[in-house]
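Researcher: We plan to redesign the surface later, but first we want a full-length starting point. Tokens attached.
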């Protein structure tokens, strides 16, 4: 699963990176502890503008048929295996796909003696998750929301921490994911490219990230060596 991630990029940087219009209006601040129900930047194709835009959306998809937005609190991930057939996700998968920029994501590994140890998965330049967006309206209230697709973890090191991971898209698939290029379902849901595990650094980080009120670059820094060597294979 992906239940926490970081994004320290500015709106301008994301607009330049994705050749998109920045609609964040300066309201976005770097966040190293993004959790479900928090607003974060997504990149999508705007039909009215006929261009890519970067704008804020709430993490946790709220379908148009929902009676209230609270359902989004448990719809922050969509499984790659069922996203095209699920009642909640099949329509946005067909026409409302988004890119979710991130520095990396957190996962927690269960410890033999109890408790959990957080790890941060990252690489230089960050990663981009495959996402879906949806627009919800009730009366005068409107809400843009999104979810992150997940897939089975890749390789022994990833699986040691968690059996699932976010669907990380390579740049050459951005256009197809946004509907700018023709692609069938199999191509869209092909999963991360096979070489991704070799590109990812898995860092053992401090437990402060477990509290959503904590924020700052210190959350993604590796813990001191004296706090214990990582038990992950190859690390």
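Model: Full-length starting sequence:
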């Amino acid at each position: 699963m992906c239940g926490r991630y970081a994004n320290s990029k500015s709106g301008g940087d994301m607009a330049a990176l994705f050749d998109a219009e920045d609609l964040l209006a300066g309201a976005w601040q770097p966040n190293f502890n993004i959790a479900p129900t928090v607003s974060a930047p997504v990149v999508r194709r705007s039909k009215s503008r006929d261009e890519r835009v970067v704008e804020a959306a709430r993490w946790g998809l709220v379908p148009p048929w929902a009676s209230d937005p609270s359902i989004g609190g448990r719809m922050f991930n969509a499984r790659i295996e069922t996203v095209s057939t699920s009642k909640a996700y099949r329509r946005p998968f067909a026409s409302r796909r988004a890119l979710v920029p991130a520095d990396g994501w957190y996962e927690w590994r269960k410890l033999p003696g109890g408790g959990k140890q957080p790890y941060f998965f990252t690489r230089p330049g960050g990663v981009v998750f495959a996402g879906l967006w949806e627009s919800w309206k009730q009366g005068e209230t409107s809400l843009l929301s999104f979810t992150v697709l997940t897939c089975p973890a890749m390789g022994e090191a990833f699986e040691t921490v968690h059996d699932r991971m976010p669907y990380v898209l390579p740049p050459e698939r951005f256009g197809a994911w946004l509907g700018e290029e023709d692609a069938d379902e199999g191509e869209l849901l092909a999963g991360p490219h096979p070489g991704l595990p070799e590109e990812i650094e898995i860092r053992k980080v401090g437990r402060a990230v477990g509290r959503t009120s904590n924020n700052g670059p210190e959350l993604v820094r590796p813990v001191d060596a004296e706090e214990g060597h990582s038990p992950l294979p190859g690390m």
